[in-house]
Amino acid sequence: KIQRLELDKYFVCFIAISEKLEVIGKCSFNIKKNKNLIYQDTLIEDGYINDTIYKELFKKRQRYVDINFPNYNIEAYCTDKTVKFFLRENFQICNRLHDKKLFCKRINNSFEEEEEVFNDFSFFSSKELHELALK
Length: 135
Fold this sequence. Notes:
Order of helices and strands: EEEEEHEHEEH
């Protein structure tokens, strides 16, 4: 399962939780001035690294951003392995960096559907979710 956490008004995190209720992955973004978002690195725990968990985290974050932050510019860093996910979402590769990362941008984020995204892990308290995100 993927859970969304809003840790403050400028930081949103998504965590992947195993059947054993362990955090096995997370991704996030920061909300900046002038309608800009910065995607943070996605981290997957050893033993769970595969495209499926990364893909689900990426999709949840992107869908949430598409619906809740229309017309925002998005900046992100990715690798050769994950660039396909960004290209499918209309990001442009702007630069290849010295540490083998790629800098990508998506200008004026837009999405046609209008739908609210709800929390699907209501059985966790806010404190428990916050602790899970920080692990």
